[in-house]
Amino acid sequence: MARVKQVSEQEARGDVERVYHELRRTMRVTGVDVSLRTWAAWPRFFVAMWEAMGPNVETRAFEESALELWQQTLDTTVAWDDLGAWEEAKLGPSQRFHVRGVLELYETMLPRVTLMVAAVRLALEGQLVGRGESPGIGERLERGAPSRMAAMEWVAEAPSEPGLKTVFADIVKTVGPPGVPGEYRALACWPGYLEAAWRRLKPRIGDASYQQVAEVLRESARRRARELPYVVSLSRHRVTALGEDADAVLKVTEALERRSTVLLLNLSQLVQDVPDMLRQPMPGAARLVPDWVAAEELR
Asked: Please, which domain of life does this record's source organism belong to (predicted)?
C-alpha cells in the first residue's frame, strides 16, 4: 500500500479542522485517532463520512455497542497469560500514572473507532448500515472529554532514536498499514515500557488462533455496526461523485478494519497487565437537549 499522509490536528484547515473539533467533542476524547487522520487525506470524503456517521456516534446506542465490543475483547483475553511488561518496565510512580492515563484514553477511544471503521467499510461495500430509525430520537450523550482524561501526546512517527525507529517499523510490519497506531506512538514516550510490551505482544500476534479471534471480533463489530440506530448514507458512488478516489479510500478502509481488532486485542492485554486498572473508565453522561433544539434537528 502506498503511504497515505495523515493530516495532523495542527495541519487541519477548513472543514477538516471543523470535523476534527466535532470528533473530539462527540467521541469525548482529547485527540483525533490515526485512523481518522488517515481518512482526512481525502477531505471531501472525510467530511461526508462524518456527516453520515456523526448522528450515530453521539448516541447512547453507539456508546453501549462500543462498550460491549470492548467487554467482549476483555472477556476473550482475560484467561491469557499476563504480558509481564508492567513489572519489567523500570518506571517511577509518576511515569506509571501517566502510562495508565494513556491506556485509559485508548480503551475509551479504540472500541469507538473500531465500530466506526466497520460501519464505513460496510457502507462503502454497498451494504445497509443502520436500522433506519428517525434521526434525532435516540438518547444522546454529553459532548466533551472528561476532565481527567489524559492529553493525546505522541512521539513523531519517524523518531530520531534508532531503537524506537526499529520498534515502530516492526509494529507496522506486524499489525499492518497505514502508519504507526496512535497508542504505540503515545506509549513511546516511555520507550522501555513500549519495547517490553511489544517484545511480548509480537509473538502472540503471529499465532493463527490470535488472528482467528481477531476475525471473530471483526465480525462482531460489523454486526454491531449494522444495528446502529440511523442509516449511514455513504457509498462508493457518493465518494466518486465528490471527486475523490473511491478505490483508494476503500483500500485504506479495508486495511484499517483488518488491523483494528488486532489492536483491540493488544490493548486489552496491556490493560489487563496493569494492576487495578479500570476496564471501562469513562462512561458518557446523558445529554440534556431542550425540546426546541430537538424539534429543529428533526426538520
From this structure: Bacteria
